[in-house]
Design a protein that fits this description.
Layout: E1 16-17, E2 22-24, E3 30-37, H1 39-53, E4 68-76, E5 82-93, E6 105-110, E7 116-120, H2 126-132
Antiparallel strand pairs: 1-3, 2-3, 3-4, 4-5, 5-6, 6-7
């Protein structure tokens, strides 16, 4: 079976951890931890998350091509803390023209062992794109840090 081939080096490879455990209803009501690369994109992510915390509606900065955002997920245990590892969710900002209708973001979704569930912006990841379309004013990214 095919494996996810981008964002899988999130525990190294220049990624910055931008959140601790955050509850995410849109990722199966799991706890997620977010990693971003390159460093300039992690800085944008944090700045945009600060705007979200302040309930701002404008001032969001766009991410450069090459930005990769990874959400490592965990099932919630009985006390609401992290339990077993869940799927890996990945977004990568591709070059202009990849998918103009979706801000040129590519989505990846894989099982904990990195076996691919979906990749691109159609098929199994069409749901990802549809959800992120609601964040067009934030360059399609739900930037949260808590």
């Amino acid at each position: 079976m095919a494996k996810l081939d981008f964002g899988v080096d999130y525990r190294g490879g220049g990624y910055e951890k931008t959140t601790g455990f955050v509850s995410s209803a849109s990722h199966g009501n799991r706890l997620v931890v977010t990693y971003v690369t390159p460093a300039s994109a992690a800085k944008i992510y944090r700045a945009n998350a600060a705007l979200v915390r302040q309930s701002k509606k404008s001032g969001f900065e766009s991410f450069p091509a090459g930005t990769t955002i990874v959400k490592e997920s965990f099932q919630k245990n009985n006390s609401g803390g992290p339990g077993s590892r869940g799927p890996l969710f990945v977004m990568k900002k591709e070059g202009s023209g990849y998918d103009a209708s979706g801000g040129d973001w590519r989505y990846g979704f894989a099982r904990p062992d990195l076996r691919l569930i979906g990749d691109g912006f159609t098929g199994p990841v069409a749901f990802c794109k549809a959800c992120h379309m609601t964040m067009r004013d934030q360059d399609y990214v739900f930037a949260v840090d808590r």
